[in-house]
Amino acid sequence: MSSIDNNRGQLQADNQPLAANYNTVQNTSLDASLAPDIAVPTSQGVIASPVTSDIVESPATGHDDVQATPARPRSRRIRMPGNLHTFDSFRYRNYRFVWATTLFSSGGFWMQQIVIGWLMYDITQSAFLTTLAMGLDALPILLVGPIGGLLVDSWDRRKLLAGIYAYQATVTSVFATLVLAGYVGPVHIFGYIMMMGVGWVILDPARASLVSTTVPGESLVNAFALNSLGFSVTRLAAPAIGGGLLALVGPGPALVIEAVLQGMAAIAALAIRLPQTKRAELRIKTAFSRLLEGALYVKGQPIILSVIALSIVPPMMSFPFLNGLMPVFAAEVFETGSVGLGLLMSSLGAGSVMGTLVLASVGNVKYKGRLIILSIALTSLTMLAFSQVTSLYFAFPILIVSSVGMMVFFSTASALVQSIVPDEFRGRVTSISMFSFGMMPIGSLTAGILAQRLGAPTAMMIAAGVVAFLLGAFLLNSRLLWRT
Question: Do β-strands 54-57 and 64-67 pair in parallel, antiparallel, or remain unpaired?
């Protein structure tokens, strides 16, 4: 019995996942045939004795493959529900560190959103400039997005991810110094946002590629849902914390916290351990042909093309209005300050948490295409409802439901694309699929102009109508995604 306890403790100390249906042995003695409890080394790693579990670290894939060989206990078996898979992907060590990078960097991003929105509106009192500033970090994706995907397919993704997080932490530290010193204006804010956006060109395809290579294929929906959960949890907490910091100490200290979070993301990225993979060497002479190769691959995949076409709608007509116009709604419609703004943004985060938890619990969704389409329809309806409310308390539940729709859309769309793409194309295809985020500056420009001339509620109502129209036109033109 002591031998079994010792081995079990050793496995837990090594942070290896235990079998989900582990059989608890309550008797004081075991059959003599179970007495030998010796771990057997193999060329693939270490296989634990059959009394506990067989755990194999596969260097070929970087996955922690779990195979359980239960003992024969003399006590009642504890049965776990088999239809819930909420945290399945956390069994894999490398995925846990990828998820940590998402958690830390997203916390910094949402802190940035609340600070930039409040700072720009406080300086300029302009709905147009405020909305533009909050969406400008996506402009580099529109300009040089495919280059980021090419770098991800050519270089070590772990080191690339850590390097970009370190770059963003440095840029944020410099900008925080300017804010603390009082030398900041609209030009400095736009410059900071653009420099941060350059990092997103590489971060998004690198992180999506790492998610796809740290879990098995059947866990992709769960992995991307949990990845969105890391994004959503910080979306719930960071704006509220940021709003409180703005009210208490101003924007400078909030930016310092953002820089610290980005530094922690870099450390988490360096902790990822994946086997060395031979990649095609990046050369200037072959760079264009490799970019073209990725584009031709996407062209030959009608499902991926359908997802990319539909993915243009939320970044262009939903995100810029729901996120970008929130400081304007807070000040002009709900007549609240930075704390109220933080709570409004946190409502979007609460919806994201709810949506991703449900999606992660369901597991591998069969009709992913239908879920993608229905989630956009839900977002359109909630945007229309939000445009009509004047009470802050009615706004919270509407924003929660709207965020459920958006987060389910992006998690499911990412899982669908990554389930099709081979590893050598992941970076390039992911950068092309994320090309839709380059539409955010266009959407921000539109939202700012409409809000400046017609008011934020009318601008939101128009955007909701456009989303519904584009979704209807897409369905009339193609039913492929609905059948996928």
Answer: antiparallel
Overall size of the chain counted in residues: 484
What the chain holds in terms of domains, given with CATH numbers, is: 2-67 (no CATH), 88-483 (1.20.1250.20)
For residue 65, give the DSSP letter: E
Going by C-alpha positions, the residue among 226, 213, 231, 229 that lies closest to residue 418 is 213
Tokens of 8: 């079990």
Measured between alpha carbons, how far is 232 from 113 in angstroms, rounded to an integer?
14
Q: Which pLDDT score is estimated for 127?
A: 80
For the record, the structure tokens of 57 come out as 């670290």
Helix 220-248 and helix 93-124, axial crossing angle in degrees, nearest 10: 40
Q: How many CB atoms lie within 10 A of CB 464?
A: 23
- What is the Rg, in whole angstroms, of the alpha carbon atoms belonging to the chain? 24
- Report CA 115 to chain centroid distance, whole Å: 21
Decide if pLDDT at 291 tops 90: no
Q: Is the confidence at residue 57, as pLDDT, over 60?
A: no
Which stretch of 199-203, 221-225, 309-313, 316-320 has the lowest confidence by average pLDDT? 221-225
Looking at per-residue pLDDT, the higher value among 461 and 83 belongs to 461
Q: Mind listing the pLDDT tens digit for each residue in 297-354?
A: 888 888 888 888 888 888 888 888 888 888 889 888 898 887 888 888 888 878 888 8
Lookup: tokens for 324: 């970008």
- C-alpha span between 211 and 198 (Å, rounded): 21
Gap between the Cα atoms of 326 and 161, Å rounded: 30
Q: What phi and psi values does residue 56 have, to the nearest 5 degrees?
A: -120, 125
Please, are residues 468 and 343 in contact by the beta-carbon 8 Å criterion? no
311/471 Cα distance (integer angstroms): 11
**What is the largest distance, in Å, between two alpha-carbon atoms of the chain?**
83
Quick one: residue 455, left, alpha or beta (phi over 0 = left, psi -120 to 50 = alpha)? left
Q: Residues 28-56: what's their mean pLDDT?
A: 37
Residue 56 predicted with pLDDT over 60 = no
Read off φ and ψ for residue 46, nearest 5 degrees. Answer: -125, 130
Segment (H or E) for 68:
none
CA distance 96 to 211: 10
Residue 365: phi and psi, rounded to 5, are -70, 135
Q: Would you give the DSSP letter of residue 366?
A: S
Q: Is residue 174 predicted with pLDDT exceeding 70?
A: yes
Query: Is 318:406 a contact under the CB 8 Å cutoff?
Result: yes
Q: Is the pTM of this model over 0.70?
A: no
| Out of 11-25, 73-87, 443-457, least confident range | 11-25
Spatial separation of the C-alpha atoms in residues 19 and 273, rounded to whole Å: 22
Q: Which residues contact 33 (CB under 8 A, 6 or more apart)?
A: none
